[in-house]
Amino acid sequence: MPAQDVASQRRWGRISEQRAGQLQRQVQAKEERIVELETENAVLHLRLAQYRGTSGKGAGAATQLCSQCPEREPPRRSAALAAPQLWRRVQALKQDTEALRASSLEVFRACREHLQDGLSEVVAAVQRAPLCHEALLAWQSKAGRLERSLQEVSARYELERQKRKVLHNRLVELKGNVRVHCRIRPPLPSDEEFDGQASQDSSAPAGVVHAVDDETVLVRWDRPAHRSIHKTYSFERVYGPAESQQVVFADVCPLLTSLLDGYNVCILAYGQTGCGKSYTMLGPLSKDERGDLGIVPRAAGELFRLISENPSRSLKVDVSIVEVYNDDILDLLANERRPAVSGPPWEAPMTKATKREMSPPTRAPVRSAEDFIALAAGSLRFQARRATRVHARSSRSHLIITATVTAAPAGGSPEDGQSLGPRLQGRPAGGRASPGPPGAQRVGEQVHAKLQLVDLAGSECAGVSAVTGAALRETSFINRSLAALADVLGALAEHRDHIPYRNSQLTRVLQDVLGGDAKLLVILCVSPCRKHVAETLRVLGFGAQARHVQRGPAGGGGAAARKPRNQ
Ligand code: ADP
Ligand code: MG
């Protein structure tokens, strides 16, 4: 066989082999596909069987529903009938929904507007807040500044008040802690009468005592048959017969300021009977009496006026009124003394029961000047008086009116401690007049200062006043107590170690003001008449001696005698 044939045979053999391989693979794929389809077919059969079961159940249920339907109409027909109704309902529901939506939108819009308003208000408030805060801070700092300046002003006021107090006190001390004024009373009709009888020389002028100026008294009497009298006396102040009660009180007034500054004050009228002591000290106290008010009612008015100027200090005033009669101390405010109103006052027997020797006098609280004056006027009805040849209503006792100024109990007023006078802090003023009921000193109460107003009984010459019996005994006690007073002043003026306070009840009662550092004002009352000249000279001599007494800081730590200016 040719080679060409062999080669083509081989080629065809290869092609046949390839083709067979292809066919074999196609057959294999077909077989696999058949297996898949058979599997799907089985699954579909299975599903079909399930659907049939389900549709069978549905048909049964449908048949049951149909059987329940009253018209036994087929469901499709009833659905067709219900459809328009449902559609209408659906439409209505749609409309409702639409309306609801619209109103919801409306509400939403309103809410949003409200919210926006609120928000803008909040924003505005937040924006304003810093401004308000700034204004508040400004006010706060302004209030702080004002408070500070108020404190400064208060401190300065307090400082000025203290300075004023010190200066006022210095002024009073410069005038003298013991001051002596002299008052010449005007001539009275009774003087003429008496002078006419007593004097053989009717051509001589009745008036022999003159106020040369407001510090000098001249006693001048040129007697033809006797040695002439020509004496001059100097005092801190001399009042002529024409000078009014008001003028006299004007010089007393600064002492009341000292009283409220915490200094004890004593004003004492000294002189012959009938020379104007009671007139000067009291004046007419009741409405029946005519004339100008004296020192006691005016001082009461001034005291309460000063207290009312500073109500925060809560100062109170208690008054005690005693008389020293025949060397006994009688409490004119004591209850047992009151029944004596019915009888002639001084003639009522003064039993031992009415005596309150050195026992605390009754202290009556007074709330006004009127109370004070009424109390003084009421108690004066009990004071011992008697008609003498010199004076128809001669006081037979020394009258001592004490006004005790107290600060409110501790813890009552913050100023209590501060308001106490420099001399009185930590101790009761005056000391001896410890209070008795009623109006006794309250617990914790501090005595601020004491004011003593003294109307002494008149010194007199028994021969001139022509008294006898009980009146003579009274005169003797009066003169002895006045002599004791002169002795005390003399001892003080001479800086003696022993001061004879205990020689009389009068000097015992006045011991604090005489020996202490109280402001003491002695008002000498003298008659202008020649018939009284001897007693006038004695009174002026007493005043000159009193001027020598100087105590306290102004006196250089004790009693420095002033150079006497009297001739
Ligand atoms: P004393 O108390 O000194 O014994 P009084 O004060 O009772 O004296 O005065 C005696 C009389 O003198 C009284 O009638 C009184 O009115 C009158 N008298 C005293 N001083 C004055 C005066 N300065 N101005 C007017 N009358 C006075
Ligand atoms: Mg009198």
UniProtKB/TrEMBL annotation:
The protein's matches in InterPro entries, at most eight in alphabetical order, are given as: Kinesin-like_fam, Kinesin_motor_CS, Kinesin_motor_dom, Kinesin_motor_dom_sf, P-loop_NTPase
Task: Give any Pfam family that matches.
Answer: Kinesin
What is the protein's given name? Kinesin-like protein
Q: Which GO-annotated molecular functions does the record name? A: ATP binding; microtubule binding; microtubule motor activity
Localization, per the record, is:
Cytoplasm, Cytoskeleton
Organism from which the protein derives: Mustela putorius furo (European domestic ferret)
An individual GO BP term: microtubule-based movement
Task: Quote the gene name from the UniProt entry.
Answer: KIF25
What keywords sit in the KW lines?
ATP-binding, Coiled coil, Cytoplasm, Cytoskeleton, Microtubule, Motor protein, Nucleotide-binding
Give residue ranges for domain Kinesin motor: 177-549
